[in-house]
Structures are given as structure tokens and as C-alpha cells.
Specification:
With about 750 residues, the protein is α+β, with helices and mostly antiparallel strands. Helix content is about 45%, strand content about 15%.
Length: about 750
């Protein structure tokens, strides 16, 4: 028995003796506190979780206070803006009404009107009325006012609502035009007012100078009275709403998404929206040159955000009006800062008012995302902190578990690396007659690498020496778009190997095979990167000699889409290299026939940087058309075409839009004479960068494409197999050149 236990009361004894019980309880509490302290000291991952809980409580109250303040400020601003728009419209309407009423009461105008009213229109043809003295007098009296106030026409109707005079001859003599009934009835009742925009029933000139029917128009109407003050007719002056009416409403645009527009009692927009182009893309408006939201777009709730891909399952005419439109028509002025859907289904906030005299409503709306952007930023900040704290907790918790595992794996990697220098081999990517390509990684850096092994019994010392020289040359290239060589060496068993960066993308050949011709903006994005890689090589006195789609990989690197890597500098040649070097032999055909320049076919020893520029032009041609520059039944015929035949311009072989600037640049690269081509890769890049589509291929475009590609991909192994095949093909071709003096077919 432990002697100390003699002085430590048991729980049973403590129940019999209160003093002992207090001693036992205090000891256990002390133990619990001590253990908890030790737990918190050792389990550091608990503290981030505690911080998350505290921050969540604090964030709730902060968010509520900020949201209330933002909503109050936004509501005040929207209400002020919509009331200002209403006041501006009422003032403008008042000016129009005053002008029309002044003309209707003018003695000269009234005399002409009385003369026209006394004539029997039903017995007169429109040309006869148009040539009558009364009609000419009326037109003459109205002309100065029409010109001064930019009215586009007029009409005069009698008590039967028959048009007895108009600036539009086709209207003269017409009775009870349905589109005019409503505002003529109001004017005949003695009211002077401006009508809501309506579709014209006569041919009018649109903003492009073309004559069209159904264009938006407005009328300011005033009753014409006789000597006894009785209404005998209506004088209506025609207004083009796009000029002043719409311009007044466009003053209410707020930020990037705010807009002010007007609508009638049927929920039809009677002014233009700032999102007409978006409405066309969403199918809300017809895709025509003169398509406008005025009189064509209904303010109805689609039930979801159409800008995010939602589409309603019923016709638009069957959809309900938006919350704003229905409340404005029924109740007049209103405000909503809690959010509702607009006619595109986008969540917005807004303030609106109704103008009963003119039978239209005016609303100012702003996307909720823009209005509450500060709140969204605050939420993202808190969320980021939450995530970081949770990740910290997870990382600290996992760290103690994985440290030992990493140390153990590192020791095992050192042992495995002895089999091939410092590299551990993984899955086999490909195999050829001269060697094998593996996916591997550096034993200590854990960096993915593509490793090529040459079989010592199949490669002579000359081939090994040549590859060592080529690796040394390629290592001089540091451009971001040139594939990096990490290492090379020879194992104790005499197997030569070299390691390059591991790429998990897709080569341009496979890109076009799978995805077809590429848009001009993406082609330019790719070509500029190729030019950057080649310019560095050329500046170092090196010529690639085998630029082709299969030797250009497209990758997603460091979260950046469409990063180009130029591969296979295995056939690289120094510009000043001579036959005495023993590395190339006169008459050797080096490269891929589909992308070879005329001089590389006729005089391979004279190739220079222009040869690579020719190949870049051929790649651009292939990317835009999906076809090589020349097609032939055999290599001999293909080479002959490269030497003699002028290529067909790419725009004639593809449905992809190709700008004249890019086409001219490509055709200059494919010139037979080297002097007519761009002299350097940088010069070529500058010419390409001046094309209109340069810079139009965005990161978002690339991410969308890569997202689709990765979802449809069967795995990355295909792309890596292509790399392996390319590397192996290079070695085979090089060795064949060394041993036989020519490239095998």
C-alpha cells in the first residue's frame, strides 16, 4: 500500500465526515482544473475554436448594427432620387402642356382649325385635304413651335375622333384609331395632358435613319374650343420619347447597377432600360438592331435570377408583375429595402411612385449586391477569419499526426532514391524503343517530375553525349513559358536520365482535336506566350526547329488558366553550330513536315529563328481553322507545297471570326522568303498584340473552359502520355539522325 494513501481520504469516508468531504472535493476540483489547463496547453487547436465562438457572437451584433445603418441610408437616398425624378418629369410635362394649350388657344391656329372642321372630310381625299388652304395655314402656324420644341409632328381630330389634319398624310381621314382613342377621349373632355408612350401607327424614322412602324411616340394633347368655350376638337403634338423623356429618367442611374425607368398600368416598360443588351442576351428582347426595352419589355417577375441561368417554365405574359410594379399600380408610392426580384430576376431594392394623371409609375432600383456591398465585404472578412481559425485548429491538430509520418516517408524516399539518383519513380507514363518515361518526384522536394530513362544497352556514348549537351543548352532558358529541366544524370548502373517539370495540361494538337478551332482571342493569348519563349531561345542563339502543336502544352499553373509551356528542345540547334561539331549532319531533315519551313526542307543546315517563326504561323493557322496549312497524300508532296504553294487565308477555311490584322500577321509568318517574315519572335508578338482581340481572352474565360475540360476529362494520364510520347519520339529521332543521317519516316 502506498503510504501516502493513509493520508488521502476515500470518497466513502468523505461522505461520513464533512471536513474530509470538503478536503476530497477541493482536491478533485484542483485536479480537474490542472488537467484542463494541461489539456488546453497541449491541445492548442482548442483555442481557435473558442475564438470562432466569440467572434461569431460579436459578428452577429456588429452585422445587425451595420445592416440597419446601411438600410436607413439607402432608403433615404432611393426615396430622394425617385421624388427628384418625379419632380423633373412633372416640370417637363407642365412645359409640354403649356405649349400645347397655348397653341390650341392661338387665334390663327383656331381659325385654321375651324376651317378644317367646317370642311367635309368624308367627301375629300387625304391629298385634297393636305393641299387645302386651311391645312397649309395650320401647318404654317404650328411650324415654329414644332421646330423650337423638337416636336416630330402633329394631328388634329374632331369630336368624332376623326383625324382631319396631320403632318402624317396617311393619318388624314382615319376614324377612331384604336391606339388614339384613350387620349383623344380625355382631351375631348377638356383635359390637357401628355400621353404615355405608345407604338406609332405610321411610318417614322428611327435612330438609324430607317423608316419603321411601331416606334415609340408620345402626344401632348390640348382641347380646341369655340367662341362659346365648347370643345370642338383636339390638337396633339407628337413627341419623340427617346430625346427628353428617357434622358430625364436616365439621370437616375446609380453606380454600376442602379437604373430609373417608367412603366404603365399594364406593367409595360415605357422608357429604355440601361440593361437592354443584357435583356437581348437573356431572350427578354428580340435580337434586332433597333430592339429597345421601351414598349417591348414587361416588368414581370421570372421567379429566379435569369442572369445566373434560371429560365421560367411559362410564357412571360403569364408571369406575375414584380413586387414593385404591382404595389405601385395598386397603392402608389412605396419603398422596399429588404429585396425583391426585378424583371431579370435579379435581387434588387427600390423606391417608386405613381403619377395618376399620366398613368405611369417611376421606379429607381439598385442591385441588392451593390447596395449592400459593404455588408457583404464585412461578412466575407468574418467568414475568412472563421475559416482561417478553423483551418488553424485542424492544421495544429493534424500537424502532430503527420510530422512523424512525413519523417518516416522522407527516410523511405531517401532509400528509394538510390535506385535513380535523387528521384523516386511513380506511375509509368509511356515507353518507347529507346527508353521509358515515368512520373516521379524529387525524394526531398516532393516535386512532381517527368523522368526519362535511356536504356544503356540501346544507346551509345555518342547519343548520351549529345543528350547531355542538349540538356545543358535547354537549361540556359529560364522563360516562364519554356519547360524547365530540373536535373539530369547517370545512375551507377549506367542508365542516363533527365527530369523535367511535370505538366498536367493538354497539348495544342489534342486541344483542337477535342475542342475544334479556337476563338481568335484565345489563339492570340497562346501565341504571345509562345513568342516569349522563343524570343529568349533565339536571343541565346538557339533555334527550336520542331515547333508544332504537340510540342506546346496548355496548362493550369498556379491557379492561372491557359499557361503555355513550349516542350521538346531536344532538336535545338545553336545558330553558330557547324558541321565540325558533329552534332548535326548535312542533309538531315529535322522537324515535323506539317510545320516545316521551306528552308528547313531545302537546306536544313541554314535554319535560323525565321524557321521557328514560320512554324508559329502554321500553329496559329491550325488553331484557328482546325486544319494544317497544307494537306497532302505523302511527305514529298507536302514538302513541295511548303516550298512552292501559297497558303489559303485562314478566314476562308474556318467559321471562326478572324480579324484582318491577325490574318495578315499569320500570312506574313508563312512567307516563303525569310526576309518577308517578322524578323524576331518579339516583333511577331508585338504585331499579334496589336490585334483587336488581344487581351479579350480573360482569366474567367480560361477558368470556364478548364472547368468544362476537367469535368469531361477521363483523367490527366492522356496528357502526360502525350508528353511521354513526345519526349520518346525526340530521342528516337535524334538517335536515328546520329546513326543513319536522316529522319525516319
Amino acid at each position: 500500500m502506498n503510504p501516502l494513501n493513509l493520508f488521502r481520504p476515500s470518497r466513502r469516508d468523505a461522505s461520513k465526515h464533512p471536513a474530509a468531504h470538503m478536503t476530497w472535493a477541493s482536491q478533485n476540483v484542483s485536479k480537474t482544473i490542472t488537467r484542463t489547463g494541461l489539456f488546453l496547453k497541449k491541445q492548442l487547436w482548442v483555442w481557435p475554436i473558442v475564438a470562432v465562438v466569440i467572434l461569431a457572437i460579436l459578428g452577429f451584433f456588429v452585422r445587425h448594427a451595420i445592416e440597419s445603418t446601411i438600410k436607413g441610408n439607402v432608403a433615404s437616398g432611393l426615396t430622394t432620387l425617385v421624388e427628384l425624378e418625379r419632380a423633373m418629369l412633372e416640370k417637363w410635362f407642365g412645359v409640354q402642356e403649356s405649349t400645347a394649350e397655348s397653341l390650341a388657344n392661338d387665334s390663327q391656329v383656331r381659325q385654321a382649325v375651324y376651317a378644317l372642321l367646317e370642311s367635309k372630310v368624308e367627301n375629300s381625299s387625304p391629298p385634297a385635304i393636305q393641299d387645302s388652304e386651311a391645312h397649309r395655314q395650320l401647318a404654317t402656324e404650328l411650324a415654329p413651335t414644332l421646330s423650337a420644341h423638337s416636336y416630330v409632328g402633329f394631328l388634329l381630330a374632331n369630336q368624332s375622333k376623326q383625324i382631319i389634319s396631320s403632318s402624317h398624310p396617311s393619318l388624314i381621314g382615319q376614324e377612331a384609331v384604336p391606339e388614339y382613342d384613350h387620349f383623344l377621349d380625355r382631351a375631348l373632355d377638356g383635359e390637357t395632358f401628355v400621353s404615355t408612350p405608345l407604338a406609332s401607327v405610321v411610318m417614322m424614322e428611327n435612330e438609324n435613319g430607317l423608316m419603321r412602324m411601331g416606334l415609340p411616340t408620345m402626344y401632348v394633347c390640348a382641347p380646341v374650343r369655340d367662341e362659346s368655350f365648347q370643345v370642338v376638337g383636339v390638337l396633339a403634338l407628337q413627341i419623340a420619347p427617346e430625346r427628353e423623356f428617357t434622358q430625364i429618367l436616365q439621370k437616375g442611374q446609380v453606380g454600376e447597377s442602379g437604373e430609373t425607368y417608367a412603366f404603365n398600368a399594364d406593367g409595360l416598360m415605357v422608357s429604355n432600360s440601361r440593361f437592354d443588351e443584357d435583356a437581348i442576351l437573356l431572350g427578354l428582347l428580340p435580337d434586332t438592331d433597333d430592339s429597345r426595352s421601351m414598349l417591348q419589355l414587361q416588368v414581370r417577375d421570372p421567379g429566379g435570377n435569369m442572369t445566373e441561368g434560371f429560365r421560367p417554365g411559362v410564357r412571360r405574359s403569364q408571369l406575375p408583375l414584380t413586387t414593385m410594379a404591382s404595389e405601385a399600380i395598386e397603392n402608389g408610392a412605396g419603398l422596399n429595402v429588404d429585396g425583391y426580384r426585378d424583371y431579370r430576376g435579379v435581387p434588387v431594392i427600390g423606391a417608386w411612385t405613381w403619377m395618376p394623371k399620366y398613368e405611369l409609375g417611376v421606379v429607381t432600383e439598385v442591385d441588392a449586391a451593390q447596395a449592400f456591398r459593404p455588408l457583404a465585404i464585412l461578412q466575407r472578412v468574418f467568414l475568412t477569419i472563421y475559416v482561417l481559425l478553423i483551418l488553424s485548429a485542424v492544421a495544429i491538430f493534424v500537424f502532430t499526426i503527420i510530422v512523424a509520418r512525413l519523417q518516416r516517408q522522407a527516410r523511405e524516399a531517401v532509400i528509394e532514391a538510390q535506385q535513380l539518383g535523387q528521384y523516386t519513380l511513380g506511375e509509368k507514363l509511356g515507353e518507347g524503343g529507346m527508353g521509358v518515361v515515368y512520373k516521379g518526384h524529387h525524394s526531398m522536394l516532393r516535386r512532381p517530375t517527368a523522368i526519362k530513362l535511356l536504356h544503356a544497352d540501346r544507346v551509345n556514348e555518342t547519343s548520351i553525349a549529345r543528350f547531355e549537351r542538349e540538356v545543358q543548352i535547354t537549361c540556359q532558358l529560364n522563360h516562364a513559358n519554356t519547360i524547365s529541366i530540373y536535373d539530369y544524370g547517370r545512375t551507377p548502373e549506367g542508365v542516363f536520365y533527365y527530369a523535367v517539370e511535370y505538366l498536367d495540361g493538354i497539348d495544342l494538337q489534342q486541344l483542337v482535336n477535342d475542342d475544334g478551332p479556337q476563338p481568335e482571342s484565345r489563339v492570340i493569348h497562346i501565341l504571345l506566350q509562345i513568342c516569349g519563349s522563343l524570343y529568349e531561345a533565339h536571343s541565346n542563339g538557339l533555334v527550336h526547329r520542331d515547333i508544332k502543336p504537340a510540342n506546346v502544352m496548355l496548362n493550369r499553373r498556379g491557379c492561372e488558366p491557359d499557361v503555355v509551356k513550349v516542350l521538346d528542345f531536344g532538336l535545338v540547334k545553336a545558330v553558330d553550330q557547324t558541321d565540325g561539331d558533329g552534332q548535326n549532319r548535312d542533309g538531315t531533315l529535322t522537324g515535323t513536315p506539317l510545320y516545316m519551313s521551306p528552308e528547313s526542307i531545302q537546306a536544313p543546315m541554314t535554319v535560323d529563328s525565321s524557321t521557328d517563326i514560320y512554324a508559329v504561323g502554321a500553329i496559329a493557322y491550325f488553331l484557328l481553322t482546325g486544319q494544317p496549312v497544307f494537306e497532302a497524300e505523302g511527305i514529298a508532296q507536302l514538302c513541295q507545297k511548303h516550298i512552292e504553294e501559297v497558303p489559303v487565308p485562314p478566314s476562308q477555311r474556318t467559321d471562326v471570326d478572324v480579324s484582318g490584322k491577325l490574318e495578315d500577321t499569320i500570312m506574313s509568318c508563312l512567307e516563303k522568303s525569310r526576309a518577308k517574315r517578322p524578323q524576331t519572335a518579339r516583333e511577331l508578338g508585338v504585331q499579334i498584340s496589336r490585334c483587336k482581340a488581344a487581351g479579350k481572352w480573360t482569366i474567367e474565360d480560361g477558368d470556364r473552359w478548364w472547368g468544362r475540360h476537367e469535368r469531361g476529362s477521363q483523367g490527366i494520364s492522356l496528357s502526360n502520355s502525350a508528353i511521354a510520347a513526345t519526349m520518346d519520339q525526340t530521342m528516337d529521332v535524334t538517335d536515328a539522325n546520329d546513326s543513319n543521317g536522316h529522319t525516319p519516316s
